[in-house]
Amino acid sequence: MGTRPRPSSSRRAGAGAPGESEAYAGLLARAREAGLLASTGFLLAWDQEVAMPPAGAALRSEQAALLSALVHERRTAPDLGDALAACEADAELMAEGAAAANVRSLRREYDRAVLLPAPLVRETARAGALAVHHWRAAREVDDMTSFTPWLQRNVNLAREAAAALGAPPGGEPYDALLENHEPGMRAAEVDRLFGALRAGLVPLVGALREAAAPGTEWMGIRWPVEAQAAFNRAVAGRMGFDLDAGRLDVSTHPLCVGVGPGDTRLTARYDPARLLGALHGTMHEAGHGLYEQGLPKAERLGQPLARPASTGFHESQARLWENFVGRGRPFCAWMLGELQRRVGSPEVAALDVDAVYRGLNVVRPGPIRVESDEATYNLHVMLRFDLERALLRGDLSAADLAGAWNERMRADLGVTVSTAREGALQDIHWAMGSFGYFPTYTLGNLYAAQLWESLGRALPGMDADLARGEFGGVLNWLRAHVHAHGRRYSPPELCARATGGPLSHEPLLRYLDTKLRAVYRLDT
Amino acid sequence: MGTRPRPSSSRRAGAGAPGESEAYAGLLARAREAGLLASTGFLLAWDQEVAMPPAGAALRSEQAALLSALVHERRTAPDLGDALAACEADAELMAEGAAAANVRSLRREYDRAVLLPAPLVRETARAGALAVHHWRAAREVDDMTSFTPWLQRNVNLAREAAAALGAPPGGEPYDALLENHEPGMRAAEVDRLFGALRAGLVPLVGALREAAAPGTEWMGIRWPVEAQAAFNRAVAGRMGFDLDAGRLDVSTHPLCVGVGPGDTRLTARYDPARLLGALHGTMHEAGHGLYEQGLPKAERLGQPLARPASTGFHESQARLWENFVGRGRPFCAWMLGELQRRVGSPEVAALDVDAVYRGLNVVRPGPIRVESDEATYNLHVMLRFDLERALLRGDLSAADLAGAWNERMRADLGVTVSTAREGALQDIHWAMGSFGYFPTYTLGNLYAAQLWESLGRALPGMDADLARGEFGGVLNWLRAHVHAHGRRYSPPELCARATGGPLSHEPLLRYLDTKLRAVYRLDT
Known about the structure:
Two copies of one chain form a homodimer.
Chain A: H1 20-50, H2 57-75, H3 78-88, H4 91-94, H5 97-113, H6 118-140, H7 144-165, H8 173-181, H9 187-210, H10 225-239, E1 246-250, E2 256-260, E3 263-268, H11 279-294, H12 297-300, H13 311-325, H14 329-343, H15 346-349, H16 353-359, H17 377-393, H18 398-413, H19 439-458, H20 462-467, H21 472-481, H22 491-499, H23 506-519
Catalytic activity (chains A, B): Release of a C-terminal amino acid with broad specificity, except for -Pro
EC number (chains A, B): 3.4.17.19
Cofactor (chains A, B): Zn(2+)
C-alpha cells in the first residue's frame, strides 16, 4: 500500500507551468481516495447480500447513497479539472504510456461525471438500494405489480442520467449508459454483433432441438453440501484464486465482489440434490475473482490502471473459466477423477468422461437466464438488451414489461413463462438501477471465445494440462494479456492486442457449432 | 428514516437573528451525515472481526482512517460552529428539552473536535487498525516484544491527543481521553470510587479464598456447538433482542456492534467441552445489543439523543444481563429447566438449581479478565486503569509494561502470569488505540448494581418473572429509564434520574457481599 506512483513524480517541470508532476501526484491521491470510498461501497454491497439483517435495508440504502455522493463529489471537484489540465499540458508526462493512460481515462470519467447533477447520483443510489429490497419482496410472493413503481422510478432516473450525459455523435441515449459498462461500445454495434450471432445461433439451436439429447440423469446424484463446498474451494484454489486474500461464502445469488487489494469475495449457492450444482457457478465467480486479484490494486488503488477494462472483459474471464474450461472435455476428465476420489459412491465410479462432458453441454431452452446453456444464454441476453432499450426510449413502460417479456420468450425460445419469478423478476440488474449492463454478458462470451482461440494458439499443450488439473498456463496467459493492463487500453485496443483482431461473432459461433454438433453427434 | 426532527422546525425566528430553526435542521442534517459515515465505520469494524480475509488488513486500515477523517471533517466544519451558535441564540429552541440536549451535546463534541488536528485523527485510526493486526500476530506467537513498538506508537498518539484536548480545570491529561467514554468523569473520581470498592472487595475475596468453593465439575459437560448456539439464540430472543434487526455470529472475541438502525450484530465464542461456555458471553453482548436496539436511531440517526449515554452505561446494560440476571438464582432455575429439556442427558437431568447457581458464582482469581468472576473482575480493571494512566503520564514505557503488569497481578490477585497472551497481550483495547476505556468496565458494574437495586424496588415480582423466563419487565424498565433517553442527560443526571442518587460503590459491594457470602455459605 501507499507506493509512490512512479519515480519521476518528484520532478518539477519548468517554464510557466510549474508543478505538473505534483499535479499528477495530486491526481493519483484523489483517485486513491475515491477508490477507498468505492471499495467501502463494495463491502456494503457484499454485506447486503451475505450478512445484513432484513431490518437494516433502510440504513444501507442511505449509506450507499452517501458513499456514491462522496465518490461523485471527488470525481467532479473543480480542482480535479485543474489537475487534469495541468497533466495534459505536461508533454513529458503524457509521453509515458502508463501515466498518459491514467490521465486520459480520468479525463473521460471527469468529463462524464460533471454532467451528472449530484442529487441525481445520490437519488439513483438510494432508489436502487430500496428497489432491490422491494424486488426481493416481490419475488418472494411472485408479484410483478408491487415492483412496477420501483422499476419505473429506476427507469426514469436512468433516462434522466442518459439525458444529462447526452448521446455520442450519431448515437442514442442508451449509449450514454452502455458507456458505463463497455467504454466506446455503441448500441448500434451491439445490434450488429448480436444480429450476426443470432443468425448463426437460431439454426444451430433448431438443429439440436431435433436431435437426441445426451442423458443428464447423473446430475441428480446427491452429494452433501459440505463436501461440495470443499470441492469447490479446492477447484477455486487450483484455478489460482488466493483464499487468504478472499472468501467463498453462501448467498442466494452467486456473486463476486472485489472489495479491494487483498479482499475479493465470492459466493455460491448449493443444492445437495445436484452433484455439480454449484461448481460451474463457483468457477464463474472465481473467474471474476482471478481478474480482480490480477489487477495491480495494491500499488494503484483507485487508478484506471488498476480497474477492469470493461464489464464485458470482466464477464469474459468468468465465462472462460466456467464454460470454455469448465465445460470442456479436458477439464471433465480431471474433474471426474477428483469426483470419484471424493464421492466414493458406485454411481459416481460408474460415470465415464464422455457422459459427463456431453451431459454438461446439453442445450435446452428454459425460462431462466442463469440456468441456461451456452447457446441459448445469448438469446436471453438479446431479449433483455432490446427490452431495456425500449424502456429507456420510453417505448415500453414498466407496467407493460412482463407482457412484452413473456411474448418475446415464446417467440425467441419457445418457452412459456408461467410466473413473474421465472420471467421479468428473475434478474437483479434493473432493480439495482443498472441499465446498459445486460449486453456485456454476450459481449463477454464473444471476448471469451476470441481469447480462447488465442490461448489455443499460444499454449499448444493446453488440453493436456487441463486434463491433469494444471490451470497455471491459462491463468498466466490471462494475467499477462488481460489482467495486468487494467484499463490501460480501451476494450477494442485490448481485444486487438490480446487476440490480434477486432471483436467478432465468429469465434463464438465457431466454438459453439463445433462443440455442440460433436456433443449431439450431428454431422457438421 | 428521514423523519423531520420536530414539527416546529419550519418556524422562523424574528428580529435580527433569522433562521435559527433552519440552523437546527441543518445541525441535525450534518449530524445525520456524520452518523451515516460512523455507521459505515462500525460495519467495517464488524467485518474486520468476523469476515475480512487476512490479506485485507492494509486496505481496511486505510478505509477506517479515511472514514474517521471524514467524520472528523464533518464534526469540525466551520459552518457547523455557526449553526451551533445560531441554535444557542434561539431561546425558544433552547427551551425545548430534547433540542437543547442535542445542541449542548453537539457543542461539547464540536469544541473538543476542533482541538484535534485532522492528520492526528487520521493517523490514530490508521495506526490503530494496523496495531490490531500486529497485536493479533504477536498474540499468536505469544511475543510481547514484537507488539511493543506498535503499542508505544499508539501511546504517543494518545498523549498527543490528550495534549491537544487539554486537561479540564484541576484535572490531568488522562481526563481528556476518559471524556471520550464517560463524559464528565474524572480520573480522580474514578480513583475515589475504585479505592472505596477495593477496600471492601479485598477482604471479601480473602474471606472467600479461605472457604470451601462450590463444585464446578458439571460445567465440563459436553454439548455440541450447534445446540449451544440454538439455545443462546433462544435466550437472546427471549431477552428481547430482535434477530430480524440483528445477527448472532461466531468470532474469536465476543462483541456487539450497533451498526445503525435495524442492524445490531452480536458474536459469541463456543466450546463443545463447556456446557454453558458461550451463554453468559452472549447474554453480555445481547445486553449491549438491547441498549443499541432501544436507542431511537431510526428517527434520530447521528443525534446525541440516539447515542448511548456513556461507555459505562453501555457496559452496565451488558453486565446487568450477564451477571445480575444471568448469574442470579431465579434465572438459573428457568435455565436449568430449559437445559434439561434441550440436552436430554442423565448428567444434566441430575443437576439441581442450587449446584448450578453456586457453580456459576465461584470466585477464583485468574490471569484473564474476561474469564474472571464478578468480584475479582474489578481488580483486573483497576490494574489496567493504573497502568494506562502511567503510560499516558510517561511514567511507564510500552517496553516496561509486561513487567509492571505481571508484578501487579501477583500483588493484587496472587496470580503468576506465565505468558504474554495471559498477561499484557490479552486485551485488544490498547492495540485499537483506546485509552481511558478500561475504567468504564467497573463503572458499568457500579451502574448495574445501582440500577439493579432500583429494579428490585420497581418490580416486586421480578424474581418470580425471571424464574419463569419472563424478561419483559426488566427490559421495559431499562428501555424507559435508560435506553430511550440516549444522551439526553449526562451520566450523573441519568444515574440520578434512574436510581435516585449519585454513582456509589455501595450497591455493588452490598450485592457482591450478600450474594457471595450466601453462595459460599459464610456467616454474614
